[in-house]
Design brief:
Elements: H1 3-11, H2 22-41, H3 44-56, H4 60-78, H5 81-88, H6 90-110, H7 117-131, H8 133-140, H9 148-202, H10 216-225, H11 244-275, H12 281-301, H13 308-329, H14 334-348, H15 354-362, H16 367-384, H17 386-397, H18 401-420, H19 422-426
């Protein structure tokens, strides 16, 4: 095989050098979906909360309860997303998610009484469920095998870009157009963009285009060189919840994401004593930038056949070290504060893309979407309560040290739990040797 042919295979380019493998266009579409999903469904509620408090003077505790309801609704619906994709298809489910999120944004903006926030949360929670983690995995994974780490990493970078772009954009629009005007603009942009992207890029499948995962050249080379892994099937129904592979994957990332959200929510308060209130948000921006870099590097440098549970354990450990640096920084060491943000941020980037990697290796292609839906639901249920619990712990301890130390403990526990599932993942399989 010539050097040019090997390069084309690695990049997933079809036989014609000018024709890019269609799976990469699906990644672009998934990136756009993730940008809107997190920009509206993850970062949006906190913006709504602040805007409604300033406009109506409603208690923060009450509006925060609506935000928690938003994430709990999302967790409940995302557990069924694999069935929805089978019944309705990726295109219809993605379009439904965009329309639901847009309608929910209008509901938040038009609420005249606190109770009206909860129907709005039902709509935005539905929209987030249908366009976020499990949905992104369902879009990208069928198109890739060997190149899946890079593809998922690129798609999930949209989540970080959503935070970088949408948080200031929301503030800009609210100042100039009020919350209702901002919701109309954002809703129109989300619905229009995702409606077109879904119809253009999510309707085809590899089989319908006569393609194989990663492009024919890569797949053919793999088929000649390596035997296929055989994973044990996931038990049917509720019995799936007792499968050790699923339990360790779900528990580890629920703990890790709880800690991650808790730290991000309180990071401005941690950084303010040294950076001042005006510059404390720079710490959050640094974490987000490092998240993109970390996720991209993991996707590019690690082969698909890596031991992803070891990678995940190392990722949790890296975040724990970064969090300890934030604790050690206190109110004195700017160097430790920035180092903590960098180490923690690098780990943030892979928290979304690692579960699909593990599920893709350890479960059959039929079971993996169901596993990801259940894992995502457990994660969202977990971190829905993180801001409230961390805020209460901070008030009770009268400082930020105790909450951060609690997060370190959770990260260390997550690292141990995800490793404990390695023996279950290996049992009953004829996995090929790792590269």
């Amino acid at each position: 095989m010539s050097r040019a042919t090997r390069l084309s295979a690695l990049l997933g380019v079809a036989r014609s050098p000018r024709q890019v493998y269609f799976g990469w266009w699906v990644v672009v579409c998934a990136f756009v979906v993730a940008t809107f999903a997190w920009g509206v469904g993850f970062y949006g509620p906190s913006i709504f909360l602040a805007a409604l408090h300033l406009k109506h003077g409603w208690p923060v505790s009450l509006t925060s309860a609506a935000v928690t309801a938003h994430f709990l609704v999302s967790a409940g619906i995302v557990s069924q997303i694999a069935r929805l994709h089978v019944r309705l298809g990726l295109v219809a489910v993605t379009r439904l998610g965009a329309a639901s999120a847009s309608a929910g944004m209008l509901g938040w903006a038009l609420a005249a009484a606190p109770w009206q926030l909860f129907p709005a949360a039902l709509l935005t929670g539905t929209g987030f469920a249908l366009t976020s983690g499990a949905a992104i995995n369902a879009m990208v994974s069928p198109w890739f095998r060997r190149l899946r780490p890079a593809a998922l990493g690129a798609a999930f970078n949209g989540a970080s870009v959503g935070g970088i772009v949408f948080a200031p954009l929301w503030q800009f629009l609210i100042v100039r157009l009020d919350l209702l005007g901002a919701a109309v603009v954002m809703g129109a942009a989300m619905t229009g963009s995702l409606w077109w992207c879904a119809g253009r890029f999510l309707r085809p499948t590899p089989e319908s285009l006569g393609l194989l995962p990663d492009g024919a050249a890569v797949q053919a080379a793999e088929a000649r060189a390596e035997p296929a892994a055989r994973q044990p099937a996931l038990p049917a129904g509720a019995a799936a919840l007792t499968d050790r592979r699923f339990l360790t994957l779900s528990a580890a990332f629920s703990l890790g994401l709880f800690a991650q959200i808790g730290i991000i929510v309180t990071l401005v308060l941690v950084a303010a004593p040294m950076l001042g209130e005006d510059w404390a948000s720079v710490a959050v921006s640094l974490v987000t930038a490092c998240a993109i870099a970390g996720r991209t590097l993991v996707g590019m440098l690690l082969p698909a056949r890596s031991d992803w549970r070891i990678v995940a354990s190392g990722n949790f450990t890296l975040q724990a070290v970064g969090t300890l640096a934030l604790v050690a920084a206190g109110t004195q060491s700017l160097v430790l504060l920035l180092a903590g943000c960098v180490l923690f941020g690098i780990g943030v980037g892979s928290q979304l893309s690692l579960p699909p990697q593990i599920a893709g290796v350890e479960f059959t292609p039929t079971d993996a979407p169901r596993v990801m839906a259940l894992v995502t639901a457990a994660n969202q249920t977990s971190y829905a309560f993180a801001p409230a619990i961390l805020g209460l712990l901070r008030d009770l301890s009268r400082g930020s040290t105790a909450p951060l130390l609690m997060m370190v403990l959770m990260q260390a526990l997550a690292a141990a739990i995800v490793l404990s599932g390695r023996s279950a993942a290996g049992s009953g399989t004829d996995a090929p040797p790792r590269q």
